[in-house]
């Protein structure tokens, strides 16, 4: 991953911050399983496994804490 | 998800903050499994699986930390 | 849930804060499984499943972080 | 639990703070499974289940974050 | 591990911070299972287990919170 | 555990902080399963279970947040 994919944690709105958190959660999977082909195959399974959907949502929530703090909760 | 569904993290009361945290937890599932039809089918299963209910409650708790901090814990 | 059940995160003591955290963890389950009858039936099972008891304790711990911060750790 | 079991989050040392975190993790189980007899019976099982031992350690870690912050990390 | 592998939490960019978080998550496995040979063998299994990929992503997210805070969210 | 094993959260470097976090994660297991003999026997099993290795890494990450904050992220 030589290209720049995370230049900043700043986003214009909370919603864009949530989208960034989702991206970070996915990158966290990608660094462990770099094969896009294999991830696509695996995705078919976990998309129908609610325990894993909830676990994914938890990872997003953890990243959203970071992104929200980085943006001072979009208070300004 | 082109529409705006998260304009702000501010809520009038802690209770509304908890409701927002619940919404964020659900959106976190939705971004991974976008099919409403499939989510409804899956919901029937996990609503009776206490381990998954507790895990869902954990995701809400994580988001509630963020929302509460964003609102300065509704101290003002 | 039209009634007010969370007017404030302030509590008089750490112990009352812990009780509030416990309540929030339970509400987090309730919003996903609103049927009291079904929750009572499910409760019989997970009360004897230590993995789920530990997971419940984890959710309480997460909410207790929020409640403790909201009360400035009852330092004042 | 009418008696006072958590008058303060202040402890003299980090080690006592860790002990308090351990106590909070156990109370978190106790509020869901109040029967001491049943908890003792269940304990025999999970004490030999490493996944549950690790999960217990995680709950302690979460509470230790709270207790450490409450004590300003015992820096003073 | 006598050599220095973590001289600082400072990184130039958020992306490098994410890479450091990934490294910390891996070191966390390494301290429990020091055998590189065995870890390689085990890796073959968990790389195709989505639940474990998501759990790994969660650990990275937790470390990323720490690294991001250490860098003041790269705001400066 | 009458002896002092945690006099301070201060460490000279981030790396020593990570080692302290690892120690805290292990103590968290030890307080629940005090038998060293039994822990050694159990260790043989979980050292080859990647899900448990990842879970251990997560506990370390949680403690590392605390230790890093206590050391002001070794910024000084």
Question: What does this 3D model show about the protein?
Answer:
Chains A, B, C, D, E, F: It comes from Mesorhizobium denitrificans. Chains A, B, C, D, E, F: This is Peroxidase. The structure is a homohexamer of 76-residue chains. Chain A is mainly α and 76 residues long. Chain A has a domain of 35 residues. The mean pLDDT of chain A is 94.
> Largest chain interface and its two residue counts?
A-B, 26 and 34 residues
Principal-axis shape of chain A: flat
Helix count of chain A equals 3
User: What profile does the largest beta sheet of chain A have?
Assistant: none
User: What is the H/E string of chain A?
Assistant: HHH
Helix content of chain A: 55-70%
Please identify the oligomeric state. Answer: homohexamer
Class from secondary-structure proportions of chain A: mainly alpha
Q: Determine Rg of chain A (CA atoms, Å).
A: 14 Å
Distance between the termini of chain A: 33 Å
Q: How much strand of chain A?
A: under 5%
Mean pLDDT of chain A: 94
Instruction: Catalogue the unreliable spans of chain A.
Output: none
Can you count the beta strands of chain A? 0
Briefly characterize the structure.
The structure is a homohexamer of 76-residue chains. Chain A has 76 residues and is mainly alpha-helical. Chain A has helices at residues 14-30, 36-46, 50-70.
Q: Descriptors for this entry?
A:
homohexamer, 76 residues, mainly alpha, 64% helix, flat
